[in-house]
Amino acid sequence: MTTDTRTGSTAGLVADGAAVLADLSRMLRELLEDYGLDDAEIGRETTFHGDLELESIDLVTLSGKLRDHYGDRVNFAAFVAGLELDEIIGLTVGELVDYVVASLRAGEAG
Prior knowledge:
The protein has 5 helices and no strands. By secondary structure, the chain is an all-alpha fold. The longest helix is centred in the N-terminal third of the chain and has 17 residues, at 17-33.
């Protein structure tokens, strides 16, 4: 279930929390592999900053991975731009999963 990068089509993507969590966990493991942390526990309560120790450049990379996978309906930069600094620092995987699911469902309705 990936985006067809030639057409930008996200047909067949399911707005399901468990599927999104699995996709996001895979993306995060790819990022963490560079740090030797690809076996880190990743769940809904996992924080990007405190638990995974991701830097801002890692979040930019994650944003690109999300766009490649889900298309333009999932705009991580816009999501983060709407948060206060303390909310960004405390951002959990579950919060991002909920945002992705809501974005995909909004795209289905539209």
